[in-house]
Structures are given as structure tokens and as C-alpha cells.
């Protein structure tokens, strides 16, 4: 079931971080997780050595999340050997068996295209810690800045929901009230331009979500 926002604190993930200062700012403001993108075509992609510096700098109880998109198994293992990731996030067409083979907890992203069946997705990925719901934009795997119709999210999912897609400081409060997600995830909504994080927007987003 989708958690009731009246009885739980919505967690916050700031994704696509490439600078240690931005990660530490987000953690100081109250973010629960930092997303590190290991997908070369993305403007938010980061190399393992730099990602390791960021992950090592995070304070206790702030998670480092590694995002992959249809990566070869060897690539994921290479990153895991170099970066102390707490959670994996898969944004491509990965199967349940693929996601489960790395011995790490994982989140499965679902692009909200018209024909998607979230109840079936939750059944297929029953070992996922959550389903991350993002807008469907042909040719894009995330970070589009687009929102989707939140009313399409059923209330009887067996996995927690992480809400993503088109969130920013102006609408995250309404999203939390209407959807009651376990967590919210933002990337483009805290950027000054594609791939460049804006400290003021990071702060505003986290404070709006907390409020």
C-alpha cells in the first residue's frame, strides 16, 4: 500500500549529484539519499573515482545510490568494487534476476507509459525495495523534467513508491499530499541547466518537501 503521508515522513533523494559540495549541502539540509549516475550518455554521469569521493564524504544515515541503465553486469561490478554504494537503482529494461544478482538492495524504475501495469510490476519485482515511478518520454531514461498523471498510481501496490518526474520546490508539497509516496526523487528540478545542480534549488526543494 502507498504509505499515508499523515503518519510517515517522506524521504528525499537528490539525484544526479556530481559535486561533493552539493552532496554535503543536500545531506545538511536533510536529504536521505544522494543519487550517482553511472550511465555515460547522461549529462549527469560521473566516473567511479569521483563518485567514491562523494560517497565516502556522506555523513551517517545518508545513502549513496548508484543509478544504472541496461549496464553490462561487469560494469555494475566494476562500480561496486570502487564505490561504497548502499542501494542500486535500475532505469532500463533489466529483469528481476539481473537486478537481484549483485547482492545489494535495489530500486526498480518504471516509466509511466500508457500501457504500464504497476500491480504486475510490483509482483515481478517483489524483491525490490521500491518502485520508482517516472514520466515516460520516448528515447529518455529519466531526468526529463516531465511529470505524469499521479492519479494513475494505484493505492494497492505491494511495493513502496518513490515518486519522480517533473518535481521541484513548487509542486513537491502537493505531490506528497496527493500521492503519499514513501520518497520523492528529484534531478532536473534542482538544476540551473541540464546536468548542473543549483545549491539554492536543492535547499528550496528539501525544505518544501519537509514542510
Write the layout of secondary structure elements.
Elements (H helix, E strand, L loop, with lengths): L10 E4 L5 H10 L3 E5 L10 H10 L5 E6 L4 H10 L4 E4 L5 H5 L5 E6 L6 H7 L5 E5 L26 E3 L8 H8 L3 E4 L4 E3 L2 E2 L1 H12 L1
Parallel strand pairs: 1-2, 1-8, 2-3, 3-4, 4-5, 5-6, 6-7, 7-8
Antiparallel strand pairs: 9-10
Helix pairs in contact: 1-7
Task: Describe the fold and architecture.
With 211 residues, the protein is of the alpha/beta class. It has a single domain (11-210), classed as Alpha-Beta Barrel (TIM Barrel), CATH 3.20.20. It contains 7 helices and 10 strands. It has helices spanning 20-29, 48-57, 73-82, 96-100, 118-124, 172-179, 199-210; strands spanning 11-14, 33-37, 63-68, 87-90, 106-111, 130-134, 161-163, 183-186, 191-193, 196-197. The strands form 2 sheets. The chain has an 8-stranded parallel beta barrel with strand order 1-2-3-4-5-6-7-8, surrounded by 5 helices. It has a two-stranded antiparallel sheet with strand order 9-10. β3, α3 and β4 (87-90) form a beta-alpha-beta unit. The radius of gyration is 16 Å and the shape is globular. The mean pLDDT is 91.
Amino acid at each position: 500500500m502507498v504509505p499515508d503521508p499523515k503518519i510517515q515522513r517522506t524521504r528525499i533523494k537528490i539525484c544526479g549529484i556530481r559535486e561533493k559540495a552539493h552532496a554535503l549541502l543536500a545531506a545538511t539540509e536533510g536529504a536521505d539519499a544522494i543519487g550517482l549516475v553511472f550511465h555515460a550518455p547522461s549529462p549527469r554521469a560521473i566516473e567511479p573515482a569521483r563518485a567514491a569521493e562523494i560517497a565516502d564524504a556522506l555523513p551517517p544515515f545518508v545513502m549513496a545510490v548508484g543509478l544504472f541503465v541496461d549496464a553490462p553486469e561487469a560494469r555494475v561490478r566494476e562500480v561496486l568494487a570502487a564505490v561504497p554504494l548502499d542501494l542500486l537503482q535500475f532505469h532500463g529494461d533489466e529483469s528481476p534476476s539481473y537486478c537481484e544478482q549483485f547482492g545489494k538492495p535495489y530500486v526498480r524504475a518504471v516509466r509511466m507509459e500508457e500501457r504500464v501495469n504497476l500491480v504486475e510490476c510490483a509482483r515481478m519485482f517483489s524483491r525490490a525495495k521500491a518502485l520508482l515511478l517516472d514520466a515516460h518520454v520516448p528515447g529518455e531514461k529519466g531526468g526529463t523534467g516531465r511529470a505524469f498523471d499521479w492519479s494513475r498510481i494505484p493505492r494497492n501496490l505491494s511495493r513502496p513508491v518513490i515518486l519522480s518526474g517533473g518535481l521541484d520546490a513548487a509542486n513537491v508539497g502537493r505531490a506528497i499530499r496527493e500521492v503519499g509516496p514513501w520518497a520523492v526523487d528529484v534531478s532536473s528540478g534542482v538544476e540551473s541547466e541540464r546536468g548542473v545542480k543549483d545549491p539554492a534549488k536543492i535547499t528550496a526543494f528539501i525544505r518544501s518537501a519537509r514542510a
